[in-house]
Design a protein that fits this description.
112 residues; alpha+beta; Arc Repressor Mutant, subunit A; three-stranded antiparallel sheet; globular
């Protein structure tokens, strides 16, 4: 379990990852919304930055904190068949972008 400072840093890293994903070059003709990142990729990229969290802690202490603060938003992806898990896709919002750029502050988010 991470302490408060580590969680704030993980939240900041999450915003930076989603900001960079939004800024990446992409095709204009894409059929899916290219601003959303699938949760599995987000978890992988966060892990590469040194933030390995159990899934429940990641969702509760990082993603839902950021979502409750309106810094990110999600979109569910329904499974193709009648069974299977619903996946989530995440994207940064205008408020989250301000946090990532340092023009807005939140005591629960540390951006480095």
């Amino acid at each position: 379990m991470m302490n408060v400072t580590e969680l704030a840093m993980a939240r900041g890293a999450t915003l930076l990852i989603l900001r960079d994903y939004l800024q990446r070059p992409r095709e204009v003709s894409s059929t899916s919304d290219p601003t959303y990142m699938v949760e599995d990729l987000l978890i992988e990229l966060l892990s590469r930055r040194g933030y390995s969290l159990p899934e429940a802690e990641f969702r509760g202490a990082v993603l839902f904190y950021l979502e409750d603060a309106k810094f990110i938003e999600y979109q569910p992806i329904k499974p193709a068949g009648p069974t299977g898990l619903t996946m989530l896709r995440w994207r940064i919002t205008h408020n989250g972008y301000q946090i990532a750029e340092g023009t807005r502050l939140d005591p629960g988010v540390k951006v480095f």
